[in-house]
Amino acid sequence: MAQRHYKEALSNPIFRQVSLAAEQLSLECYVIGGFVRDFLLKRGQPVDIDFVAVGSGIDLARKVAASLPGKPKVSVFKNFGTAMIRYEDLQLEFVGARRESYNRDSRKPVVEDGSLEDDQKRRDFTINALALSLNPGNFGQLLDPFSGLEDLAEGIIRTPLEPQTTYSDDPLRMIRAIRFAAQLGFRIERESLNAIGAQHERIRIVSRERIVEELHKILMTDTPSVGLGLLHQTGLLAEFLPELVALQGIQEIEGQRHKDNFWHTLEVVDNISRHTDDLWLRWAALLHDIGKAPTKRFDPKLGWTFHNHELVGSRMVYRLFKRLRLPLNEKMKYVQKLVLMSSRPIVLANDFVTDSAVRRLVFDAGEDVEDLMTLCEADITTKNPKKQQRYLQNFALVREKMAEVEERDRIRNFQPPVSGETIMDTFGLKPSPQIGIIKEAIKEAILEGVIPNEAAAARTFMLGKGRELGLTPVENPADPKT
Ligand code: ATP
Ligand code: MG
């Protein structure tokens, strides 16, 4: 095969530095993997660059770091035989070329020193096994023993070695195959796809963290349904998101059918991905209907119902996040909240929209109300253009009212216009349930539109409410200002 050179890929001075350091150590050295692939695909700026040395990658990293301005720190991972340098915006990873063999119950290989080609064989895909030489004799030459260049041109995900073994050795590669297919718009070659389908269960030996890392990359693609669909088709999704797979299927009783909530969900995720790059909002879209599987009932009068599925679903979020070792922090609470509230704007859009209903929605959703609306709009998957138009218009109306109400009453970050202290001072009260009752009554009056969200109106209302409760204002309240 003709030799190809890509010197232009190596214009960053860092490559000359690494080349020089390798020469001084009398090592062969190459750039490999994602950097080469993404250069050939003209895909954006690299974040990490992988170097492979025939010899010690750690020694090479040390030599390179010593030659760089500011002498950056070298992080050495002895157990893996790798080293990493952060330099400018780049993460430089170094490894010694190696040959790997695997035990059945672990994805940690037994490692021996090897040649460049040994190292290319242990790579997951042909398109990730491409290497460029940094050696003076053939600087920039492409080394491509598995025709990765061809697969790149044709858009094919293929393993360098036999697929069954490749995926069995390290089952994480099954999800990576799908992730790259989704990210790059490639197709997974048939034998690979079959191998993944046949051994999807082996994903169980992979840590949740690594699975989630790849899942997140799939969720962040332009059309997540591509990757999610492949995960489902191969049986992988059922391994780590069974709640989602449980939504699949259409049941029919007495001639009544419900929609397939799995495929509906994937459509919703695609829709929302056109409007947001927020990973957690995409998660909310993915999980917004998970409560529908456990709550599904057939009622002879009502047909199919999913009573309370929002509440049930939001409770499932916690268990799911915990199982996947996702953060159990405000991100989870956000997803729970959106799942819980996911039907609220729909009710509004169906009925006549009153100001007080909109105020309550904004009050309950707080600063997440925009995201909630985005989710609801994404939830419209009807294929009837008239209906779709009507729903969207209704939501637009809800948004309009939200803006109006917000301008007038600032409900979004609601702060009680009269404090508990003022109530105590006004009526000469010690801490007591009456204070809570009055505060709640003021809030209700504002949400119902009885009074505006203003201190003076709230104060008058407070005096009235106090009288109702048999309270009398004291002569000289401690704080006469409010
Ligand atoms: P990206 O950085 O966009 O995720 P990448 O291809 O650089 O893509 P990394 O996870 O950074 O992916 O890995 C760097 C390289 O290491 C890959 O290109 C591939 O050659 C190799 N590699 C990574 N993970 C595996 C694996 N599980 N099995 C075999 N080779 C792998
Ligand atoms: Mg990378």
Polypeptide structure, described:
The protein is α+β, with helices and mostly antiparallel strands. The chain has 24 helices and 15 strands. The chain has helices spanning 13-24, 34-40, 57-67, 116-121, 148-154, 163-169, 172-184, 190-198, 208-219, 224-233, 236-240, 242-245, 261-273, 279-287, 292-295, 309-323, 330-340, 344-350, 355-365, 369-378, 385-409, 420-427, 433-448, 455-468, and strands spanning 28-32, 48-54, 74-77, 82-87, 90-96, 98-101, 110-113, 131-133, 142-143, 156-157, 187-188, 252-253, 256-257, 296-299, 303-306. The protein has a 7-stranded mixed β-sheet with strand order 3-4-5-2-1-8-9. It has a two-stranded antiparallel ribbon with strand order 6-7. A two-stranded parallel sheet has the order 10-11. Strand 3 (74-77) and strand 4 (82-87) form a beta hairpin. Helix 7 (172-184) packs antiparallel against helix 10 (224-233). The longest helix is centred in the C-terminal third of the chain and has 25 residues, at 385-409. The model has no long low-confidence stretch (mean pLDDT 93). Adenosine-5'-triphosphate (ATP) is lined by residues 33-34, 48, 50, 123-124, 128, 170, 172-173. The site of adenosine-5'-triphosphate has 10 residues, from strand 2 and helix 7.
